[in-house]
Amino acid sequence: MINDKKRPIRVVQYGLGPIGQGSARLILEKAKTGKLELVGAIDIDPDKAGKTVGSLVNASSDVVISSNANKVLDDTKPDVVVHTTSSFIPKVEEQLTQCILVGASIVSSTEELPYPFDRYPKIAERLHTLAKENRVTVLGTGVNPGYAMDVLALVATGVCTDVRSVTVQRRVDAGLRRQPLQNKVGAGITVEEFRRRQAEGGFGHIGLIESLRLVMHGLGWPIKKFSELLEPVISEVEVETPYLTVRPGRVAGIKHTAEAYLNDHLAVSLDLRMYVGAQQPEDRVVVDGDPPINLVIEGGIFGDTATVAALVNAIPHVLNASPGLRTVADLPVPRCFLPS
Amino acid sequence: MINDKKRPIRVVQYGLGPIGQGSARLILEKAKTGKLELVGAIDIDPDKAGKTVGSLVNASSDVVISSNANKVLDDTKPDVVVHTTSSFIPKVEEQLTQCILVGASIVSSTEELPYPFDRYPKIAERLHTLAKENRVTVLGTGVNPGYAMDVLALVATGVCTDVRSVTVQRRVDAGLRRQPLQNKVGAGITVEEFRRRQAEGGFGHIGLIESLRLVMHGLGWPIKKFSELLEPVISEVEVETPYLTVRPGRVAGIKHTAEAYLNDHLAVSLDLRMYVGAQQPEDRVVVDGDPPINLVIEGGIFGDTATVAALVNAIPHVLNASPGLRTVADLPVPRCFLPS
């Protein structure tokens, strides 16, 4: 049962980039209920260290941001750390270990963490063992991976007697999002430039394969064969955003797909399109099952707010889960934590 | 983790009405994987006792149906009982107690069981205590209550930083369903007849208030004030189904709504319409939140198949849950169990 703690849940925010700032702001907002408390904040950026969280996120908080993670964690011994520093597991193992060792459960936005068991079996095993020893739960989540292309897909199959395949389509109009995202999907550049940057590994949504693995795992299907493809979406018309213009023939954004097979049968297909000018943005799950299910989030899920929400909403779930490295498929159905 | 048992999960089917027969058939189908086994079947109907499950559900099974529940449970000591006998908790407490006492976890279609803590606090406490003592989990679920108007509503809020209200609309075209359901919603009768039967308590969807309580509970909102209304839907045109004809001005079915308030603010609103001739059947969740969410299952969820699926899909969840009387809001996200 959530919300049955007598004292507030003590939270440290680890990482204060855009998502971390949103998380800190939301924690401070929800702290007004008296059920949650921001007790520490960590960021290595020298421009942020020494400032108060309140001054950084334009809210009321005199918690001072520190670049000394160990000191913050030791001094505060939080119940939960909301961790938002990097997309990649090798870069965060040491940070997660620090948190676990002071007895803190973790909700992390690290895109490789929602299903790390195949890509990083050794790190996953180390984190799982350490978390169990220290009686804490570690979870990777967010809107994608963590919800739109995995949890929703599993939920859609929950009333099916059988499932033959699951298709997830996420259409995001990058033109409605912040400028870094428009740049990240290559909006406005030439196809040649796209291919050049793609070859350098500079493009693509991180975590798509993690969603694929989560869905396969959740359905009990072994993942033996899978493929991934990243292509530019070419604009046929001129599109203008507040930040840039995409001329016809130029790149509007990305189409990133991943597919998993069971005995040469396409079992799970994920199709993510993020581009400026996308018509009818939506999140759609199509289950070829009994009964068939066609689940849609009309207009799509607005990612910037939703990622922050998914992290903070998981706080009670990690506190109540059995210790170890867990996935969103292991935890109770997500829902808003402490709505006003 | 599901499916990690070395031996098959041993299941008893308790109740072999239409839903119980569907459940038995599905268990037998999934038993082909070797991960599940139907080891017993109980029904008090003298026409069924003594027959094999196979002959009743047109499948391959020589499990003999018995009216002696205690003997079946004692002889088989199942891991899980799928229980489908009655909608009402007072009628099933003794049956559930029998199951718990032989160490079986339970998935039940009893419509009052998904959230029994307010309506039957003493029975709920007895079942919870007994389940914990016997290290088993007891769950009430189904498509509605248990999924369409509660789990989906909670899931829809999972990426919201805040929620002001949740509205759930379920539209079912009763004309596509089996005859008993068409009769149950009063299709074809006069408004006077509807009101007469309504006064006798003969109408309405059982479990709507349970869904309302589940959503409020899941969001951490205390349920202090709620209302419920059952009205006939009057047909404006003539509608024909394979079983009956509804003339203009006659009852086409029901509109059953329930609302819960927080300080005079409408917090959760459930609106269920089941009638013949319903256009555009769908399940819709509208979250007034940040971000707003508009989640739709296009065409709706076909209830007869889905109820059976929801029950069988919960089997691994009750086996892995912490002991006690639990709700679908406490358990991991639903998903299809053992898809082919």
How would you describe this protein?
The structure is a homodimer of 340-residue chains. Chain A has 340 residues and is α/β, with parallel strands linked by helices. Chain A has helices spanning 18-31, 53-57, 69-76, 89-101, 121-133, 151-156, 179-184, 191-199, 208-218, 303-313, 315-320; strands at residues 9-14, 36-42, 65-66, 80-83, 105-108, 137-140, 162-173, 225-234, 239-240, 245-246, 251-262, 265-275, 282-290, 293-298, 324-326. A seven-stranded parallel sheet of chain A has the order 3-2-1-4-5-6-15, sandwiched between helices. In chain A, helix 4 links the parallel strand 4 and strand 5. In chain A, helix 1 crosses helix 10 and helix 4 packs parallel to helix 5. The longest helix of chain A has 14 residues, at 18-31. The relative contact order of chain A is 0.16. At the A-B interface, helix 6, strand 7, strand 14 and helix 10 of A face helix 6, strand 7, strand 14 and helix 10 of B.
